[in-house]
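Mods, move this if it's the wrong board.
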Amino acid sequence: MRARAFIVIMFAVLVLLAARFSTESLAASGLPSWRPPAKMLNQLETEMWMGEYAMRPPAGSILQKLRVSPPRSGFTRMWAWTGPRREDGSIAGLVVKVVSLKTEPASLDRAVRDELAALKMRKKGRSPTPTEYGRINGLAFAVTRWTGTNDLRGLDIAGFTYVAVDGNSLITISSEDAVGYDVQTLPITEASARTFRRR
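Not the wrong board. Structure tokens:
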């Protein structure tokens, strides 16, 4: 009798696990895979390691000094690349930020909302597009594109922000440039963002 009860319980557990696995698989297959356009690959440098992650930066970009800060909630690492500063003061930029949190972060949706709220505080007149979801080398990302104003130089700017949650790590990949230049630079920085991967 006990053996039969055990078999019934094990069968029920297997059914639940199979259902969960199927749901996760369907959710994963429902996200598009984002890759850099093949024509952009020759405008990217060779892969650079960033801790447990790697990415191909834009060709000719200048790697800025790595900034590390230990906030109360976790440990932050940042990598930044810029292009040359132009006569009007504008400059293209790409920033990767990895925050290792002490506790597991909230859902990807919540992480995106928090990032947009922070962006609104930093960029005057921020106007985001609807959030899109996809996978970059297996990692689920959300991306939003936005426009705003650089108060310091009085320039209209455009950019994008990718957000991912990988275990206890919160990842953001952001890029911006002055409107007018953005049509040339942002496709390259976005191609770079779409090479991001775990090592």
